[in-house]
Amino acid sequence: MKGRRLHKVDTAWLLLIGLTLAGSALGEWRHGGVWVVLGVALATAFKGRLVMDAFLELDRTAPWLQRTVRAFGLLVPVLIVVTYLWGEELARFRWLP
Amino acid sequence: MAVEVEQSARSRDGYPGNRAIWVGIVAELVEFSLMFLVYFFARVNHPAAFAEGPKKLSLAAGTANTLIMVTSSYLVARALLAMRAGRISACRHWLTGALLVGGGYPVVKFFEVRWNLAQGLTGGGDVFQMAYYYLTFNHLVHVSWGLLGLIWVLARTGFGAYDAQNHDGLIAFASYWHATDLVWLMIFPLFYVLP
Questions:
Q1: Smallest Cβ distance to B54: which of A27, A44, A72?
Q2: Virtual CA dihedral for A43, A44, A50, A55, nearest 10 degrees?
Q3: Which of A37, A45, A54, B53 is 20 to 30 Å from A66 by CA-CA measure?
Q4: In the prediction, which pLDDT does B11 show?
């Protein structure tokens, strides 16, 4: 019997489900550390990229839209890493009562 | 040819669906970007509250809503592929599935908030709780609009308003729904996963 090939949206969905469950397992584990934080940031960036490419079909949009949406997808992962590594230094710039 | 059918006039000008929906999507992304900046500003100033915060929330509810969002988004992507291939009936079925799955989001959110309140987690709590309620309720509002849009495109598909060549309304809705999914994927680790 000829096997049915997965479309890119099928593959993206399966990866998103797998990464979500892996992220939840990490959340349940509740351990800090640079590798855990890096892992969460990378998984978040990758999941965002999957949605942009496979579901949102960003390659069909205008270049400025592609740049805007891709920048949005990087904002949280980058800030996760930056605030983990330099959170104390950043807090010194401004104090929130 | 299928590929030619996929390239509607709207896609060729760089704004799949219509320009108005992309104004809305960019506004949504800017709005949430600003809220994320506020979140991280609060996080570096109150590390203890943000380290303890995720332990108080229901990880199961956050995970369930993430699975709901990505699955509903996937079903909408499938519906669009079916429409492009001229399989209108299949498109209707995928959209119905997306609505049934997506409808689970506010239901899970309702039980999550009820559980939160029973645990004493209110919007008037610490800075983590305030950030959590502000961001997730804002997202719930966007999901609610999306669900209304989903009902609309499902009805339009049912009444035969779209075909393989003309379905810009469906593309516009799909773009909005995927963007709302993207926003949730950014919110989820901030409140439920990040140690």
A1: A27
A2: 150
A3: A37
A4: 58
Residue B83 counted as domain residue? yes
| Number of domains forming the structure of chain B | 1
Q: A20 — contact with chain B (CB < 8 Å)?
A: yes
With a cut of 90, say whether residue A95 has pLDDT above it.
no
How far, in Å, CA of A74 to CA of B34, rounded? 14
Q: What is the pTM of this model?
A: 0.92
The domain spans of chain A are 8-93
Whether B5 is covered by a domain: the verdict is no
**Is residue B141, in this structure, part of any structural domain at all?**
yes
Distance CA B7, CA B13 (A): 10
CATH assignment of the domain containing B115:
1.20.120.80
Residues of chain B positioned with their CB less than 8 A from the CB of A43: 189
Which site among A47, A56, A64 would you substitute to test the B interface, given the most B Cβ atoms closer than 10 Å to its Cβ?
Answer: A56
Tokens of A81: 């890493």
Cβ within 8 Å of B, A 31-70: 31-33, 36-37, 40, 43-44, 47-48, 51-52, 54-57, 60-63, 65, 68-69
Ranges under pLDDT 70 in chain B:
1-12
Average pLDDT over residues A38-63: 96
Residue with tokens 């998984």: A43
